[in-house]
Amino acid sequence: MRNVAIIVRRELGSYFATPIAYIFIVIFLVLASWFTFYLGGFYERAQADLDPFFSFHPWLYLFLIPAISMRLWAEERKSGSIELLMTQPVTLWQAVAGKFIAAWIFAGIALALTFPLWITVNYLGSPDNGAILAAYVGSFLLAAGFLAVGSFMSALTRNQVVAFILGVVGCFVLLLAGYPMVIDAFHSWLPQTLVDAIASLSLLTHFDSIEKGVLDVRDLIYFAMLIAYFLIATAVVLDVRKAE
Amino acid sequence: MIKSEHLCKRYESLTAVDDVSFEVRPGEVLGFLGPNGAGKTTTMRMLAGFIAPTSGQASICGHDVEQDALAAKSCLGYLPEGAPAYGEMPVRRFLEFIADLRGLSGARRARLGYVIDRLQLEEVLGQTIDTLSKGFRRRVGLAQAIMHDPPVLLLDEPTDGLDPNQKHEVRTLINEMARDKIIVISTHILEEVDAVCTRVIIVARGRIVADDSPQGLAAQSRYHNAVSVRLERPEHLTAMRAAMAALPAVAEVEVSDRESRLTALPRRGSEILPAVSELAARRGFALKELHLESGRLDEVFRTITA
Ligand SMILES: Nc1ncnc2c1ncn2[C@@H]1O[C@H](COP(=O)(O)OP(=O)(O)OP(=O)(O)O)[C@@H](O)[C@H]1O
Ligand SMILES: [Mg+2]
Predict the structure, then answer these.
(1) Disulfide: which of A21, A154, A229, B225 matches A163 by Cβ 3.0-4.6 Å?
(2) Is some CB atom of chain B closer than 8 A to the CB atom of A1?
């Protein structure tokens, strides 16, 4: 646990050592606001809630989260620092967890910086703050799911651009599986149980239900399992390929 | 103790390390030599627990590097080839990170200051590692490796890129640490072998081809106990050469024109120094220099690894 904390601290320090972290946060905030106010018709709806804000998060994260996760392992392998890290008295698990948690905290910081929107809706009306909190939690979990996928993709290659593209594709597949259009396409030729199974694997299905303000245990378990699955896969890949 | 038992590492068709076995005991400084691609780095990576051997085992201080990886890594200071580090970190933060991972707290934290001082890193503490010169980068890597005062050190080309002063500093440091530690260094600088090593292993194409003391290796040289002379008067060169070649114990005489130096190589096991000096005196050839060679490591290295 101590080692995980040490690694988290180092990683977070590295995020903010370069301008990339600040650029990322600015892009995130600008895009999030733009989606909310223009595409989401925040004012036109004349409702004091953050639905338009949260409903775009999956699509916002689709590109922004792989941009965070692409460097996680690809950079370590490219620069050779992975050899330094893995010959310290640290387990592969501690390293995988530490780097993932740091990336998650970073995404959380970016998300938390959208608080002016929350203040705005509270100023304009009286929204259901419980539902907003649940939606924030859902968004934070969604980021974690994407990051776990991205971490796995980053472990597959030494090239950050490849890691980014793989990350976007991986997350896209997980999102699409729950998209009504895709579900309908499956309906015509697959039995209902299989279609439901595919839909239940999708991040979108689970994010939508949390975003509506309901924190269901099943959704939480889904995210926990998704994250655990991809982090285990990350560790397995690294164990085999870390020196290549 | 480092123990390597039948270590092998295969990549698809290539066998990078092939049945390498050796033991190193405290007090020994082992020089790991070999041509490029011989498998030195691969062997060190397996000992450091970074890559898994295809077959065979290794242990550090009695801890198997695979089964008991954390304990083995705790006993080990390792400088990977090329001294990789986190480029965006300032030197001080990087070393603090290593000290944290090595669990240096309380009184043991003083070690951090000692290491910075010892490798003369004060002036670059605030600089990010990416902006360091090659030599400073290597010194940061060394600082990292000795941070926790480990009983075993594996250093892959520790003096590569260092200036002569720093090479000397690092060799002094290695010699100081040598007394109670086990040190393995890989190097392409043969003078380093004389300066620090008590034992040499030469690998070629993944196999150990020599395991001896530096003196023992030098004794395999054609130049072991060779006598080289420089004459006061260059016009005596031809006559001296013929006279030396005629000595019964001399196998061959080499001339280096640039310095008008003659080197007489003895037949196996013979001593030719008295004969050569007596010869020069008898024939009245004044000598500028008379020198007994102990053997040339570079020549042995070439012969063994060819
Ligand atoms: N990941 C890998 N995949 C395939 N071959 C590899 C890999 N790593 C090393 N090799 C090969 O293994 C052999 C031994 O390499 P190694 O780096 O151990 O040599 P070395 O003795 O350290 O050489 P140098 O003196 O140049 O540092 C080389 O032929 C190298 O190409
Ligand atoms: Mg090497």
Answers:
(1) A154
(2) no
The rounded distance, in Å, linking the Cα atoms of B99 and A60 is: 39
- B47-92, pLDDT tens digit by residue? 999 999 999 999 999 999 999 999 999 999 999 999 999 999 999 9
Residue contact A84–B45, C-beta within 8 A: no
pLDDT score, position A43:
65
| Residue ranges of A 79-138 with Cβ closer than 8 A to chain B | 79-81, 83-84, 86-91
| β-strand pairing of B29-33 with B199-204 | parallel
Q: Could you tell me the CATH number of the domain that includes residue B16?
A: 3.40.50.300
Cβ neighbour number for residue A79 with a 10 Å cutoff: 18
For residue A235 the two structure tokens come to 């560790």
Give residue A45's pLDDT band: very low, low, confident or very high (50, 70, 90). Answer: low
**Domain limits at B137?**
2-219
The reply to whether residue B85 touches residue A84, judged by beta carbons under 8 angstroms, is yes
What CATH number does residue B293 fall under?
3.30.70.100
- Could you report the per-residue pLDDT of B5-19, keeping only the tens digit for each? 999 999 988 999 999
H helical segments located in chain A: 2-17, 20-34, 51-55, 57-69, 71-79, 81-86, 92-112, 115-124, 129-156, 160-176, 180-187, 192-201, 203-211, 217-241
Measured CA to CA, the distance from residue A126 to residue A124 in angstroms comes to 7
Return the ligand 1 atom nearest residue A243 CA.
Answer: 1
Tell me how far the alpha carbon of residue B131 is from its chain's centroid: 28
The closest alpha carbon to B79, from B188, B159, B198, B173, belongs to B159
The size of the A-B interface in CB pairs under 8 A is: 63
In this prediction the ipTM stands at 0.89
Mutate to test the interface with B, among A8, A14, A84, A158 (most CBs of B within 10 A): A84
Tell me the whole-structure pTM to 2 decimals: 0.90
Other Cβ atoms less than 10 A from the Cβ of B56: the count is 17
- Is B209 in the same domain as B249? no
Interface probe, candidates B79, B94, B101, chain A, greatest A C-beta count within 10 A: B101
Structural domain including A21 reads: 2-240
Cα(B145) to ligand 2 centroid in Å equals 17
Q: How many domains does chain B have?
A: 2
